[in-house]
Write a structure and sequence with these properties.
By secondary structure, the chain is an alpha+beta fold. It has two helices and two strands; from the N terminus they run αββα.
Amino acid sequence: VDLIPWVEKYLGLVPEEYRDSAAFETVSFRDSPKDYWLNVKVHFHRPETDEEMEARLADEEAQKLEQQRAERQMLEELKERFSDR
Protein backbone atom coordinates (compact mmCIF):
# COMPACT_ATOMS: atom_id res chain seq x y z
CA VAL A 1 0.00 0.00 0.00
CA ASP A 2 1.35 3.40 -0.97
CA LEU A 3 0.80 5.68 2.02
CA ILE A 4 2.58 8.73 0.64
CA PRO A 5 -0.42 10.09 -1.34
CA TRP A 6 -2.67 9.42 1.64
CA VAL A 7 -0.34 11.26 4.04
CA GLU A 8 0.05 14.14 1.59
CA LYS A 9 -3.75 14.40 1.26
CA TYR A 10 -4.30 14.74 5.01
CA LEU A 11 -1.25 16.92 5.53
CA GLY A 12 -2.74 19.21 2.87
CA LEU A 13 -5.76 19.76 5.14
CA VAL A 14 -3.52 21.32 7.79
CA PRO A 15 -3.10 25.08 7.27
CA GLU A 16 0.29 25.67 5.66
CA GLU A 17 1.61 27.88 8.46
CA TYR A 18 1.11 25.03 10.98
CA ARG A 19 2.30 22.05 8.90
CA ASP A 20 5.70 21.99 10.56
CA SER A 21 3.96 21.04 13.81
CA ALA A 22 1.74 18.35 12.24
CA ALA A 23 1.97 14.84 13.65
CA PHE A 24 0.19 11.61 12.81
CA GLU A 25 -0.83 9.46 15.78
CA THR A 26 -1.69 5.81 15.22
CA VAL A 27 -4.98 5.08 16.98
CA SER A 28 -5.39 1.49 15.83
CA PHE A 29 -4.02 -0.88 13.25
CA ARG A 30 -5.14 -4.23 11.88
CA ASP A 31 -3.24 -6.50 9.59
CA SER A 32 -4.75 -9.91 8.97
CA PRO A 33 -5.02 -12.30 6.05
CA LYS A 34 -8.57 -11.04 5.44
CA ASP A 35 -8.04 -7.29 5.64
CA TYR A 36 -5.96 -4.44 6.96
CA TRP A 37 -6.63 -0.90 8.08
CA LEU A 38 -4.96 1.96 9.84
CA ASN A 39 -6.77 4.53 11.97
CA VAL A 40 -4.81 7.70 12.72
CA LYS A 41 -5.34 11.16 14.14
CA VAL A 42 -3.64 14.19 12.66
CA HIS A 43 -2.60 16.83 15.19
CA PHE A 44 -1.09 20.24 14.73
CA HIS A 45 -0.37 23.15 17.05
CA ARG A 46 -1.56 26.67 16.50
CA PRO A 47 -1.73 29.53 18.97
CA GLU A 48 -5.19 30.29 20.29
CA THR A 49 -6.89 33.40 18.97
CA ASP A 50 -7.79 36.32 21.22
CA GLU A 51 -11.44 35.24 21.03
CA GLU A 52 -10.56 31.66 22.00
CA MET A 53 -8.46 32.90 24.90
CA GLU A 54 -11.30 35.12 26.14
CA ALA A 55 -13.75 32.21 25.91
CA ARG A 56 -11.33 29.87 27.71
CA LEU A 57 -10.69 32.36 30.51
CA ALA A 58 -14.41 33.03 30.91
CA ASP A 59 -15.07 29.29 31.07
CA GLU A 60 -12.30 28.80 33.64
CA GLU A 61 -13.74 31.62 35.76
CA ALA A 62 -17.26 30.17 35.53
CA GLN A 63 -15.94 26.75 36.59
CA LYS A 64 -14.06 28.32 39.50
CA LEU A 65 -17.18 30.16 40.68
CA GLU A 66 -19.30 27.01 40.37
CA GLN A 67 -16.73 25.04 42.38
CA GLN A 68 -16.75 27.72 45.09
CA ARG A 69 -20.56 27.70 45.15
CA ALA A 70 -20.62 23.91 45.51
CA GLU A 71 -18.03 24.02 48.29
CA ARG A 72 -19.96 26.72 50.17
CA GLN A 73 -23.14 24.70 49.86
CA MET A 74 -21.34 21.62 51.18
CA LEU A 75 -19.92 23.67 54.07
CA GLU A 76 -23.39 24.92 55.00
CA GLU A 77 -24.82 21.40 54.83
CA LEU A 78 -22.03 20.08 57.04
CA LYS A 79 -22.46 22.94 59.53
CA GLU A 80 -26.17 22.18 59.72
CA ARG A 81 -25.59 18.45 60.04
CA PHE A 82 -23.01 18.71 62.81
CA SER A 83 -24.18 21.86 64.64
CA ASP A 84 -26.00 19.90 67.37
CA ARG A 85 -23.07 17.66 68.31
